[in-house]
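Saturday, quiet lab. Running sequence design on the structure tokens for the scaffold JK sent over.
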């Protein structure tokens, strides 16, 4: 028999959210959503508040990424919702099942000029899987369930609901949603068999695994497929760490050689976008394994593209019974290049230069970060180095803005990571440019006793813009920041702590102090503005 629930709109919404495993709320206070706060207060449902709405959405997204379940952000009407749209858009590009609940001006006097009266739906529909205004209190549980079902159905993504003032404040009664998980989507078996045959018969195959491998809980299946077929694996996004660095099939440094020399490239759970040369791998055949037909690349001719539950597809690849080519020599060739690149990186990470080179920061971080540390990248130039020098040892430990490239994720991601893993190291890597987007939310971390370590690569410029602009025009504008700004003092003023480091020899001790501090702690590292991550253009 279906359970009936009753209460005001906030209570009905929260009852539905609990059924889907939502366990916390991120918000910035606003009168339009008071009933949601009341429901949380009455039932000891944790509420974490922030200083900018985008941080609330980013925090909710971090929860979805790390815990593979829905995350919740509650935003007040008008500017509360519009301030959160960058977070929604990042979640859309990252396939993160975030639910944003928005307040809304009263429906009964719509058009009369109520405070913060605007129609949010035309703004959020392009960057959500489902967007709806709920006009009946009794309809709130149904709407929450429908939104979360859409969010969790691959290809996953964010959803949005807003409630007119009188709807969320009124009392109603409705059926309790069950919160059932969506059924797995089975791929076309002929397409899966075609992909398996291509990989098994390839002379020089490569697998590139992305974030959907983690979010789709397909890490074990990926390892099984790689090991069964003997294929080297590269990763990006939250696919990083799917194979530990010491695994004989795990590669990171030899990607250019692998992708230029491969005859079959298998891309699993990530789009064929700018991060992967838009799927152009020369003469190699491309196998694109995706979690839904909508994710098949339309700009690349693929040899096979199975679409469905990644666990099922990868397990089928592992179970392929046909003839297989021995890839031992190919793997050995790549290992030589991998080892040579690691040796070069080791030299760069030990550099004793003055001013400090970014590579040295990552060399010191590798010494202090635990295998299960959560590492968060929020920046351009400085964080580009992180992708090169840091190698996550475990899956589900790497957070970056993803293909949308939105700066300002750092403090929200840190909040979600600390709540998810209270006993692990949480380290945010920020450029000094990115620090300007979200550093005020250190106050939120301090006030709610959520310690994290922040490392700022402070070169006083927008590195990915200044150097390319100079190369293109011979000059640059709007690319300079205040040199040697004391971001550590900003954090200290909000109740945290920190220090500025100008000598490479002092980095190690500073990082150790940061991880022992027990409060939000910022290590402000003055780096060489001439040392920019090698990239031909930020516009590609």
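Result came back. Writing it out in full:
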């Amino acid at each position: 028999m279906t359970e009936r629930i009753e209460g005001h709109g906030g209570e009905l919404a929260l009852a539905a959210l609990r059924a889907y495993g939502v366990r916390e709320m991120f918000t910035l206070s606003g009168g339009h959503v008071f009933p949601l706060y009341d429901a949380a207060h009455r039932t000891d449902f944790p509420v974490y508040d922030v200083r900018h709405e985008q941080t609330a959405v980013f925090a909710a997204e971090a929860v979805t990424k790390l815990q593979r379940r829905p995350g919740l952000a509650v935003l007040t009407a008008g500017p509360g919702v519009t301030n959160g749209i960058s977070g929604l858009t990042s979640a859309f590009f990252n396939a993160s099942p975030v639910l944003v609940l928005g307040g809304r001006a009263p429906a009964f006097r719509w058009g009369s000029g109520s405070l913060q009266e605007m129609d949010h739906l035309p703004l959020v529909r392009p960057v959500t899987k489902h967007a709806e205004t709920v006009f009946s209190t009794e309809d709130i549980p149904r709407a929450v369930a429908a939104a979360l079902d859409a969010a969790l159905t691959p290809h996953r993504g964010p959803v949005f609901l807003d409630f007119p003032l009188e709807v969320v404040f009124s009392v109603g009664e409705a059926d309790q949603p069950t919160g059932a998980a969506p059924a797995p989507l089975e791929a076309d078996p002929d397409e899966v068999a075609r992909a398996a045959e291509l990989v098994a018969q390839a002379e020089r195959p490569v697998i590139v695994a992305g974030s959907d491998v983690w979010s789709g809980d397909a890490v074990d299946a990926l390892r099984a497929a790689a090991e069964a077929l003997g294929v080297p694996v590269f990763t990006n996004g939250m696919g990083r760490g799917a194979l530990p660095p010491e695994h004989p099939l795990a590669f990171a440094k030899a990607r250019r050689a692998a992708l230029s020399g491969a005859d079959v490239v298998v891309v699993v759970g990530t789009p064929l976008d700018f991060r992967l040369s838009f799927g152009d791998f020369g003469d190699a055949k491309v196998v694109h394994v995706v979690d839904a037909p909508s994710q098949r690349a339309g700009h690349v001719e693929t040899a096979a593209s199975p679409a469905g539950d990644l666990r099922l597809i990868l397990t089928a690849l592992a179970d392929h019974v046909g003839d297989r080519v021995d890839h031992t020599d190919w793997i050995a060739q790549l290992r030589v290049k991998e080892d040579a690149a690691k040796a070069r990186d080791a030299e760069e990470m030990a550099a004793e230069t003055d001013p400090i080179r970014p590579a040295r920061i990552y060399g010191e971080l590798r010494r202090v970060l635990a295998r299960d540390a959560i590492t968060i990248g929020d920046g351009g130039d400085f964080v580009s180095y992180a992708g090169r020098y840091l190698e996550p040892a475990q899956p589900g430990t790497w957070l970056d803005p993803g293909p949308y490239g939105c700066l300002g994720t750092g403090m929200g991601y840190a909040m979600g990571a600390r709540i998810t893993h209270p006993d692990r190291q949480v380290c945010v890597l920020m450029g000094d440019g990115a620090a300007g987007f979200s550093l005020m939310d250190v106050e939120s971390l301090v006030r709610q006793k959520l310690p994290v370590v922040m490392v700022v690569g402070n070169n006083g410029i927008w590195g990915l813009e200044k150097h390319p602009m100079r190369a293109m025009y011979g000059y640059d504008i709007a690319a300079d920041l205040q040199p040697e700004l004391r971001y550590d003092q900003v954090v200290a003023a909000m109740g945290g702590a920190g220090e500025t480091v100008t000598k490479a020899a002092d980095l190690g001790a500073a990082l150790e102090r940061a991880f022992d501090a027990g409060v939000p702690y910022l290590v402000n590292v003055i780096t060489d503005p001439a040392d920019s991550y090698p990239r031909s253009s930020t516009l590609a």
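Notes for JK: The domain at 4-171 is CATH 3.40.50.970 (Rossmann fold). Residues 536-540 have pLDDT under 50 and may be disordered. Ask whether to fix the surface positions before the next round.
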